[in-house]
Design brief:
alpha/beta, Rossmann fold, seven-stranded parallel sheet, binds nicotinamide-adenine-dinucleotide, about 250 residues, single chain
């Protein structure tokens, strides 16, 4: 397929659901060969089936991105199967949130592993391959929680601020190698797997009060930003944090 990502090979972690699924479908429509990586085999396979049914190119790799060996194998399998790696979208994430005084150390460690350390693994193995190629675009999913204080977000705020720091550091160190690294900071996107319990009318209204564009975000809103950062249209942009938040961080 021709399009804004034609000839590119893109790995999307957490591609079975939510924002990752929306990005997988969009990237494939724009001509990328998409590798969907997820813990959820059934959901991930369903996304690749949908892409292929629409005439696109995709494969599924079952991977737990908190396991360094599985991330190394994910990149290796991608390159063995598709020949290269142009876009690494470190989108997967899972959080246990509570105000800090009420949080167990186990929940803190879980959140750091599922939201920050795995992004380091994704950057590390993508960078090794992209250095060999002399090009590549890494996109890391942060959150508005990493930019501004939001009540009750505790460890999520810390892990996503860490993702932002890591993103800038990678951008500075690897720009001279032709590799870009940017972050997306989504605002509240209700009714994804990890926000479904939070998505009460009351919580949605509270979040809408925090942003000027008075509608909830959708996975497609975030996928559109990821497409821009994945494509050559953003070829002079690196180390940037793109808030996709209905203006929340402007208030
Ligand atoms: N939804 C929001 O409001 C929101 C806001 C800001 C940031 N984010 C971030 O956006 C990203 C995507 O969130 P979403 O709302 O689309 O979530 P989601 O729960 O709908 O999808 C997450 C996907 O990641 C997969 N996953 C989780 N842990 C994994 C692991 N260790 N290895 C492999 N796959 C794993 C899940 O199986 C799932 O398919 C996350 O990093 C999240 O923190 C979400």
């Amino acid at each position: 397929m021709s399009g804004r990502l034609s000839e590119k090979v893109a790995v999307i972690t957490g591609g079975a659901a939510g924002q990752g699924r929306a990005a997988a479908l969009l990237f494939a429509r724009e001509g990328a060969t998409v590798v969907v990586a997820d813990l959820d085999e059934k959901g991930g396979q369903a996304v690749t089936d949908d892409i292929e049914a629409a005439g696109g190119s995709a494969s599924f790799v079952k991977a737990d991105v908190t396991d360094e060996g599985q991330v190394a194998a994910l990149v290796e399998t991608t390159v063995d199967t598709h020949g290269r790696l142009d876009v690494m979208y470190n989108n997967a994430g899972l959080v246990r949130m509570a105000p800090i005084a009420d949080l167990s150390t186990e929940d803190w460690d879980f959140t750091m592993s599922f939201e920050l350390t795995q992004v380091y693994f994704g950057c590390k193995y993508a960078l090794r391959q992209m250095q060999r190629q002399g090009s590549g675009s890494i996109i890391n999913t942060a959150s508005t929680s990493g930019l501004v204080g939001i009540p009750g977000h505790g460890p999520h705020a810390a892990s996503k601020a860490g993702v932002i720091g890591l993103t800038r550091s990678v951008a500075v160190d690897y720009g001279p190698h032709g590799i870009r690294c940017n972050a997306i900071a989504p605002g509240f996107v209700p009714f994804t797997a990890q926000t479904v319990e939070l998505s009460t009318r009351e919580f949605i209204d509270m979040m809408l009060a925090l942003q000027p564009l008075k509608r909830p975000g959708t996975p497609d809103d975030v996928a559109a930003a990821a497409l821009f950062l994945a494509s050559d249209e953003s070829s002079w942009i690196t180390g940037h944090v793109l808030a996709v938040d209905g203006g929340q961080t402007a208030m």
